Structure formats: C-alpha cells, structure tokens
C-alpha cells in the first residue's frame, strides 16, 4: 500500500512538472490561450465593421472563407477594395475595374494588413506561421512570454520575410506588446506597438496601439522591449479603431 502511494505521488510530481513546463515554454500553447481569451472562436464566424483613419473596413469570416474590404473616397470617386479567398477586386463607383497584377498585390497587402492587426492574435495559427519561445521577461513590473513569429515562403504572403515578436502576459495571456521588422528601400524597418484602450465587443477583444520606432538606428528586433523600458523609442502615431460593430454568427 505504501509503495502504491509513493508511485501515485511520483506520477503527480511528474505530471505537475510536465504541465508547468508545457505551459511556460510551449509557444503553441501560449498562442492558443491568447487567441482564446481574445475571442478567437467567435471570430471564425463573424462580421466586423470599423473605421481606421479615413477608410471604412469590413471583414466577414465563415470557417476559413473570408471577405476583407475597405471603402473610401478618392477625389470624386467611391472606391471599394475586396480581398477574398479567390483574389482581389476593385470597384470604382460600383463598377468593377481592371487592376494590374502588380497593383493588385500592393492593394491586397494593404487591405490584409489592417484586418490582420485589428484582431490579433487571431491568425497566428495559420499553416505558414512558425513560433519560437524566447523566454520570460518583465515590462513595467509585469511578466511576459516573449514569442517570435516567422512565416514560410509558401502561404506567408508577399511580406513573408517580416518577423514579429509578441509579448503575452503570463497571467491573462493577453498580447500587450508586439514588434516587427520589415524591408525598407534603405534597409530594415522596425516598429514596436503598445496596446491600450482594451474593450470587448460581443466577446471579441479589440485594442488600439501606440506605434513606436527606435531612436538608435543600430537597434534590432529582439532589443525593442529593453529600449521601450529605457525610453529608447520614439512615438510615431496612434493606431485607433473607431465605430467598431460586431456580428457573431452561431451555427447550429
């Protein structure tokens, strides 16, 4: 009987150890939790509308099928850009117009980028996404999982070489900070974003961002959190989503 109890205790210790190790070090687990607390499952079948700067954005998602749109005026014309699983289309004053492939790629990337950032971390489980755990750090007296995100060439989009870092709060699993590197004409650009103005609308988390860049031109992506703590970043802009409307669709 005593031996049996010792075996049970040993198994419990091993289970606890592996569970803690899994929770603390597995980037897939952390991202899964972060998506869940941000309303990820609700996004699978949802309609979302919002304004960003001078444009109106529309997102319709239905179990993998999607329609991302943006509507704006250019001089006297009304322009509607639509990106779906089938490709890109542009309408000018409700008429479908021809868009050269080079411009279609540019417009598609621009539309997708706004919708991508609007519902982060949703989308980080796409097949082309790679996750790497970089450790646990502190920012403003809070502990964060630091996770690096890269993309495969196939399925990673036009900007597949961009790299991202996400800081996921260890207790809430919410993304409070993110950073990314991207190609510029004269080298590599870096941006760091701090989330603020959190609100939940019909169970989906939305945040706005303060957008920073490093003061030191020699800075690298991995050091941006340290530069934020030591005031080594310069605020560039505010990224605010306005007049957000959400319709979640429950399928029986």
Explain the overall architecture:
The strands form 2 sheets. Strands 6-5-4-3-2-1-14 form a 7-stranded antiparallel β-sheet. The chain has a 7-stranded antiparallel β-sheet with strand order 7-8-9-10-11-12-13. It has a domain at 2-43 and 119-248. It is globular, with a radius of gyration of 21 Å. 25% of the residues lie in helices and 48% in strands. The protein has helices spanning 2-25, 27-37, 40-43, 101-118, 224-229; strands at residues 45-52, 55-62, 65-74, 77-84, 87-92, 95-97, 129-139, 142-151, 163-169, 175-184, 187-201, 204-214, 233-239, 242-248. By secondary structure, the protein is α+β, with helices and mostly antiparallel strands.
Provide keyphrases for this structure:
alpha+beta; single chain; disordered N terminus; 252 residues; seven-stranded antiparallel beta sheet
Strand order of the biggest β-sheet: 6-5-4-3-2-1-14
Estimated structural class: alpha+beta
| Main sheet makeup | 7 strands, antiparallel
| H and E order | HHHEEEEEEHEEEEEEHEE
Shape label: globular
Strand content: over 45%
Write the layout of secondary structure elements.
Elements: H1 2-25, H2 27-37, H3 40-43, E1 45-52, E2 55-62, E3 65-74, E4 77-84, E5 87-92, E6 95-97, H4 101-118, E7 129-139, E8 142-151, E9 163-169, E10 175-184, E11 187-201, E12 204-214, H5 224-229, E13 233-239, E14 242-248
Antiparallel strand pairs: 1-2, 1-14, 2-3, 3-4, 4-5, 5-6, 7-8, 8-9, 9-10, 10-11, 11-12, 12-13
């Amino acid at each position: 009987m005593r031996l049996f109890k010792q075996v049970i205790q040993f198994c419990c210790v091993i289970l606890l150890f592996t569970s803690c190790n899994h929770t603390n070090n597995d980037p897939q687990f952390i991202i899964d939790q972060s998506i869940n607390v941000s309303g990820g499952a609700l996004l699978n079948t949802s309609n979302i509308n919002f304004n960003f700067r001078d444009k109106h954005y529309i997102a319709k998602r239905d179990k993998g099928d999607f329609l991302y749109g943006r509507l704006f005026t250019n001089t006297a014309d009304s322009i509607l850009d639509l990106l779906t699983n089938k490709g890109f289309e542009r309408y000018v004053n409700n008429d479908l117009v021809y868009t050269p492939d080079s411009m279609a790629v540019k417009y598609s990337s621009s539309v997708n980028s706004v919708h991508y950032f609007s519902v982060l971390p949703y989308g980080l489980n796409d097949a082309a996404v790679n996750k790497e755990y970089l450790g646990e750090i502190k920012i403003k007296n809070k502990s964060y999982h630091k996770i690096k995100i890269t993309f495969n060439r196939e399925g990673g989009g036009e900007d597949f070489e961009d790299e991202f870092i996400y800081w996921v709060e260890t207790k809430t699993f919410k993304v409070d900070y993110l950073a990314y590197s991207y190609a510029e004409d004269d080298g590599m650009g870096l941006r760091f974003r701090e989330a603020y103005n959190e609100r939940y609308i019909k169970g989906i988390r939305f945040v706005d961002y303060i957008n920073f860049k490093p003061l030191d031109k020699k800075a690298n992506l991995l050091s941006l959190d340290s530069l934020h703590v030591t005031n080594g970043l310069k605020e560039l802009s505010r990224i605010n989503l306005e007049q957000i409307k959400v319709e979640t669709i429950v399928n029986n």
